[in-house]
């Protein structure tokens, strides 16, 4: 009969017998200790919220560095016998094939992603990293998307860019009312607050049409930040956006357009070319 876990030498790595699938071996238990250290550090910190992914990674790096300092002597002893690293970096991504649907989107790992409408119907090769998705057609890199996560209750997550879906929304503005990812659609807080104000003040159809026009203006005129400032000023003043005034403000300046002069060659020139070819 094999020795029980508590009878084994705690300093030696242990194999896990198949009949003891609920037990952790000596190597696996290290991961459990790290998880416990992270959990304790979060409790001491008093919050699980971080400003961004980089801040969370710094937090984890500090915990790992503190644990490694306690093992510095053993790490230095092993470092002397380590082999050189491979010339090429190993793959740290998973590759998946997805098809872009008619809604200019695809779903991967219970997360809904939008892409430019020109990719509708294409099969994309996706390199799935921990923090991002790299999209390819064949060997050509198209774009990079931040990786989303499904929600804790099992609901789908969403990574949405209004630039990708604005053309579809212009055809069906009322779809804005029922979109499950509507909160992620607005690029800045001023847009979301403006839509709430429009819903309160106007019929749903008119509110949706105006909001879609505002998003389309931000997309087509590349004025997302400036338009957000104007919408914020309207909200502070308690007035609705003036679409006509905003269109005029962000319309192309005719004086800035280049004056292109096209000089047409006389038709007799072509006759000379044809005669030269005949000769």
UniProtKB/TrEMBL annotation:
<dbReference type="Pfam" id="PF22483">
    <property type="entry name" value="Mu-transpos_C_2"/>
</dbReference>
<protein>
    <recommendedName>
        <fullName>Transposase for insertion sequence element IS21-like C-terminal domain-containing protein</fullName>
    </recommendedName>
</protein>
<dbReference type="InterPro" id="IPR054353">
    <property type="entry name" value="IstA-like_C"/>
</dbReference>
<feature type="region of interest" description="Disordered">
    <location>
        <begin position="1"/>
        <end position="26"/>
    </location>
</feature>
<feature type="domain" description="Transposase for insertion sequence element IS21-like C-terminal">
    <location>
        <begin position="85"/>
        <end position="147"/>
    </location>
</feature>
């Amino acid at each position: 009969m094999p020795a029980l876990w508590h009878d084994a030498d705690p300093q030696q790595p242990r194999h896990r017998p198949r009949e003891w699938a609920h037990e952790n071996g000596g190597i696996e238990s290290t991961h459990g200790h790290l998880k416990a250290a992270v959990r304790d550090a979060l409790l001491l910190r008093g919050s699980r919220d971080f400003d961004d992914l980089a801040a969370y990674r710094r937090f984890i790096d500090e915990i790992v560095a503190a644990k490694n300092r306690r093992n510095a002597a053993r790490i230095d002893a092993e470092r002397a016998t380590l082999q050189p690293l491979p010339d090429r970096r190993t793959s740290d991504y998973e590759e998946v094939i997805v098809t872009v649907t008619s809604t200019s989107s695809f779903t991967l790992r219970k997360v809904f992603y939008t892409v430019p409408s020109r990719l509708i119907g294409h099969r994309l090769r996706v390199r799935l990293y921990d923090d991002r998705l790299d999209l390819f057609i064949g060997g050509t890199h198209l774009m990079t998307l931040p990786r989303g996560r499904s929600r804790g209750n099992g609901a789908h997550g969403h990574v949405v860019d209004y630039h990708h879906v604005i053309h579809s929304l212009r055809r069906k503005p009322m779809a804005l009312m029922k979109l499950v990812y509507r909160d992620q659609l607005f690029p800045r807080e001023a847009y979301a607050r403006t839509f709430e104000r429009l819903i309160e003040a106007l019929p749903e159809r008119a509110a949706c049409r105006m909001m879609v026009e505002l998003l389309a203006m931000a997309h087509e005129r590349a004025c997302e930040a400036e338009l957000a400032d104007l919408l914020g000023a309207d909200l502070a003043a308690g007035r609705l956006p003036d679409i006509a005034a905003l269109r005029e403000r962000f319309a192309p300046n005719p004086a800035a357009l280049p004056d292109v002069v096209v000089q047409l060659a006389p038709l007799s020139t072509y006759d000379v070319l044809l005669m030269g070819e005949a000769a």
